[in-house]
Design brief:
The protein is an alpha+beta fold and 207 residues long. Helices cover 45% and strands 18% of the residues. It has a single domain, classed as Nuclear Transport Factor 2, Chain: A. It is built from 7 helices and 6 strands; from the N terminus they run H-H-H-H-H-E-E-E-E-E-E-H-H. Helix 2 packs antiparallel against helix 3, helix 3 packs across helix 5 and helix 4 crosses helix 6.
């Protein structure tokens, strides 16, 4: 097995702990954009709490319900594993969803661990991607440099959830995970991926 850092990348890809965000406006009346804005607000709260000395577990507990509400994590897990998902036993599928959820939340807590005045702008106009929507955001650091982070949001009516993240508007987080996970999953068996996720979560949580 290659080193964990090559296999498991965070939900925000190459963003470092110093890239911290503050929400701006979002599309009026849009449930899809509101999900992204809610995630941003929770991250701000957690970042300020980190700067005030709140520990990892407390910030994890704050972010967890918002991340689980904003993301369709079962679908993201399935797509990240790829075409072999359907060959896995139900027990492994369930365990992977649980671990991927912990991995996602832990990555956010680990990276967004302090507040230094960076901002994020949620653009008011969404783009259509078939039946899905893309909510565009711009992360700007204190020195004025920035990176585009866009969210692919799927659903209908009042039920929209994030199911992918695009860094610089093009790099699919799900595709990155699928590439990273490929060598850790065999037809009918994801035990290597389960072990890798467990190890990464422990590392992120400082264990």
């Amino acid at each position: 097995m290659r080193s964990m850092k090559h296999h498991l990348r965070s939900p925000v890809l190459a963003l470092t702990a110093s890239l911290l965000i503050m929400p701006a406006g979002f599309a009026a009346g849009s449930v899809a954009s509101a999900q992204v804005s809610a995630l941003d607000n929770a991250l701000i709260s957690a970042m300020k709490s980190a700067s005030a000395g709140q520990n990892f577990q407390a910030r994890y507990n704050t972010l967890a319900p918002v991340v689980e509400q904003a993301y369709d994590l079962p679908e993201v897990t399935k797509n990240s594993v790829g075409f072999l998902w359907s060959t896995l036993p139900a027990a492994q599928q369930s365990e992977l969803i649980d671990l991927f959820t912990q991995f996602t939340i832990s990555s956010y807590v680990s990276q967004f661990n302090g507040y230094n005045g960076q901002t994020i702008s949620v653009l008011p106009e969404e783009k259509q991607l078939g039946q899905k929507k893309i909510v565009e955001t711009k992360l700007t650091s204190a020195d004025g440099s920035g990176v585009e982070i866009d969210y692919v949001v799927a659903g209908s009516g009042n039920d929209w959830k994030i199911n992918d993240v695009l860094l610089n508007g093009t790099i699919s987080q799900v595709a990155v995970h699928a590439s990273d996970f490929a060598s850790l999953v065999k037809s009918g068996d994801a035990s290597q991926l389960i072990s890798a996720l467990q190890s990464k979560i422990k590392t992120l949580q400082g264990g």
